[in-house]
Structures
1.
Amino acid sequence: MGKSIPIQALTDLPMWQSIEEGALKLQFCSDCDTCRYPPAPICPSCLSMDSEWRPVTGEGTVMSWVIFHRKYFDDFPPPYNAMAVRLDEGPIIVTNLLDPVPGSSLIGRRIKLEYVDHDGRKQHGARLKEAD
Amino acid sequence: MSKGLHKVAGVVGVGDTDWRADYAAQRKGEPARFDGIGLASLAFKRALADSGLKRDDIDGLIVGPTTPYERMGEVLGLDTRWGGQADAMLGVIQACMAIKSGLAEVVALVYGNNQRSGKVNYGGSNAAGGQSFLSYVYHAPWGFTSQGALYAMMFQRYMEETGLTSAQLGQVAVAQREAASLNPGAVMQERITTQDYLDSRFVCEPLHLFDYCLINDGGVALIIAEAERAKSIRPDPVMIHGVGRYDLNSGATSLEPRLTDYYLPAQQKVAEQVFNMAGVGPEDMSSAQVYDSFSCHIPLALEGYGYCPPGGAGQFLEEGHHRLGGRLPVNTSGGHLSESYMQGWAHQVEAVRQLRGQCGARQVPGCNYVHYSSDVAGKAVSIIYGR
Ligand SMILES: [Zn+2]
């Protein structure tokens, strides 16, 4: 067993840095404005290789969620949740719900990202916009 | 129109290893008898014996992804004029392509995996492929890891959208264990009830322990020969009637094709290709062998290949059409959930044995066509086997 560690690569360093700074930035195509997530050297829509990094609103809608009952990481004692959220800017990201998981479905619920300390690094989590 | 790879080649030999005995020995703390190469070697010897061929008849070699290609050929003493490394489904397709193009005539496909004794991890900080598999790189910092979790995330949404219940999904595990109870080689043979399934612990909710594949050591080998040669080798070669493939790569890391339509468009494209090439339809299939790392592959395949309408898998499973004796017996060996987790390789062997009529108590009567399908991380593949 070990800890969860972000693996950083040339194309995605600005993303990890923006999370550490508490305001997620994503990469957008300079030519057609398509969001590249995960970050990439080329636009999958128009094949432009120019891009810019912009902060996102941090708001989105829950696509799905799971609850881990098995331990995979020392820094994530089970049970813990993970959610797939479609950001208003388009891409689907994975994050954790910071509120208690309600008994009802989370799918379709609106969320806003927050930034929390996790084992010595900062990362995003989600709050339900309307309390359960 | 070209018939593509229709009846270009047939399977003339199959072999596997003693996964039930090996599993039991390791549970008692005994050391493994073989590593991955050893397991593949044993399966190869058995497949060769099953075919009646001599080693030197083989002129092509496909090695599964878990053992190195050159070393595998070296230990088996195989110098070949064509070869490659591939997973089970693409290995069968590539063998047919090589045979059709004249690059090989008799291809051995070998696979060995000591994933249990070798303590291979499929999730966590040292998951197999974790440094390069982007779904892990981008999601692990939030604790989201393992193939099981990817399918749990996908299936949670599918269940809400279609109304399929846990009890209906549980019919996959119940039926495959029932089939495994009739398979003397299966690792898990004790039958389970729907209640046992519902009472079993969650690994990644909504998936239960019984939704997950086994982790065990084993090897599998197949020998595939050009059609005319196959008929001269044995009177009952199992012919490959059709193949198909479609990959959904766009948005794969961000789970887009999983969460928006559950890979359905990929499977529908493959269905069109494979059934056209084979000249038959889903109603002609005697059995289906579906790659089942997780039980939820089965309902997705049933819908994707037209065995039931989209959203209709819950009812199909509840009515038991996938069980032995049902309209479409699925994973008649017990599959990855109960027989052996051989990453799709043992499914090919089961298809061959069903068509030969060698399956004893779990034999599907009048077995004419067997449909193999897999959807692994958005890559949908199908093979139709027949006489
Ligand atoms: Zn673009």
2.
Amino acid sequence: MIQTRKIENIILSVITLCAAAIWVFPLYWAMVTSLRRESRVVSDSAGLIPDEFNLTSYIDAILNTRLLTWYWNSIGTSLIITVVTVVTSMMCAYAISQMRFPGRRLLYLVVLASFMIPAQALVVSQFILMNDMGLINTWGAIILPQLIVPVVIIVYKQFFDAVPKELREAVLLDGGGEYTLLFKVYLPLNWGITAALSIITFIGAWNAFFWPFLVATSESTMTIPVGITQVQDTFGVQYARVMSVALLGAMPVAVAYLLFQRRVTEAVMISSGVKG
Amino acid sequence: MTGVILRNVEKSFGAAKVIHDVSLDIPKGAFSVFVGPSGCGKSTLLRMIAGLEETTGGKIEIEGQDVTDQEPARRGVAMVFQNYALYPHLSVFENMAFSLRLARAKQSVIKQKVHAAAEILKMVDQLDKKPSQLSGGQRQRVAIGRAIVREPKVFLFDEPLSNLDAELRVQMRLELARLHREIGATMIYVTHDQVEAMTLADKIFVLKDGFVQQAGAPLHLYDDPDNQFVAGFIGSPAMNFIPARVTGRSDGLIMAQPDGAGAITLEAKSTGEGLSDGTIVTLGIRPECLRPAETGLSAKIEMSEELGGVSYLHARLAGDRPLVVERRGIREMLEGRTIHLTADPADILVFDPDGRRLR
Ligand SMILES: Nc1ncnc2c1ncn2[C@@H]1O[C@H](COP(=O)(O)OP(=O)(O)OP(=O)(O)O)[C@@H](O)[C@H]1O
Ligand SMILES: [Mg+2]
């Protein structure tokens, strides 16, 4: 009995390790590539083992591309998207969950419905809208359409629904209103989920490619994922440089992930409906 | 002076009417208890006084002020909930200080009031803890402290002890009584436990199906119930009810033959107004009022509960009707025996077929 358990465990571990290796290999390869001289990247002598520690392509990326601008754009837009999305979604969810007003159910249905519409279906009309508003090639165009994240509202609503109604009544008796309720009770009770939702919203915004790619056509408004497409010159793709930009671009998210690992897992589980 | 007055108060949830035309006067400074079976509308009535439920009709006054349409916080009431409803993210101190902070009280005032409340509740050394670090009894004390700090005109309690274990419940009951003595505020307390009601109350309101059945001092309700429901609800073990046929009347007494008891006749003190011979009534006799006699109701004892000083005999009358008899100082084995019982006319209450008391 115990024997079979052990064997099962070993087999499982091996499978997980293989999966992890498959997943990690591109990352590893990017790292190895980015540390080679451009001339060696595609030559026969470039093997699987790292054999060079050459920072040229990193220096190159920083000096000869607009990486720092893209960083700034990515950080700026992602932060604004995160803060605005989380705050407005929280308030919307609070209203739907706790306040009684005509049209409440309808509002929630609209939120649920918009959850089911794929973003791609809206691209054309949103692009035209942004164009009409004169926002193409500004942060505005990158940010505005990304502010609508129905799943954040839905998750918040579920958590607010679960707060016992006596707490609400205790606050009303203590002389508090809706603002006290939301900011002094409902929000503090849900810091965990707030942190989790903020992180996934941030990661989503940071990694967004398709939409920023459409509306940021000048290098000065590009975010990092879009900017990576620009790292080539007239002689074609420069692999080492592209890889170094990609790694530099992914770093903040990786760091954020490592710092808040537990919260992120939690958030992904909640928002995909495994829990809550 | 009256603390809280309800006049013709009604409440419907959609089509369902749960409070029917309730009018009652709750004395200022007294400990009043709403008691009744589950679902009778006790909580709803309390929440209407608190302002947490809107009134569908009627008027509510607190210390002379019409509060029917007033916000909960403006009514001068504080409520203690069954599940405590403490703010889980705040310390005990901050829980108690919450309302004061909202009212922008000075830090020194907050400190002084919270400490005074903690003193009364013997919670001074727990002020830094979070609610999750407290026991059930301590949590309920914090909830009470949160109410005390607000110095309300009326304290409202909705079954505050029902989440506690039996021993703690008795202890907290005593503490509530002490608290009431110490601060002397108007308190309204909801429970479905009639023992709690009897021990705590200055005045009890018995509710059923959204109607007030009777109001009065605990012993008054016990001795002189207005109807069969109150008679059966107040008192433990409950009053025995025996259907009987009226066979005659004579100055202040009526004669009645219990169902299936043959020729046995019981006399009950009642003018018997409006009763004609042959009418079926219900006789109510408390377990402690039944005593053995040469002739009387014959009851077969099925089981006896010996509690030491007192025993309860669970018996069956003819027609399989259950009967409980209280005996003191007797320890002989009675199970399986048949005994004869009677009671003084003054101890037998008469109820008409609708359950109304015939005095
Ligand atoms: N929000 C509501 N919507 C609809 N019906 C309700 C609502 N609240 C209470 N009721 C109904 O009103 C009636 C009285 O409820 P209430 O909670 O006042 O009973 P209670 O006497 O406190 O009972 P318990 O001892 O079980 O707490 C019940 O029939 C209940 O179903
Ligand atoms: Mg109740």
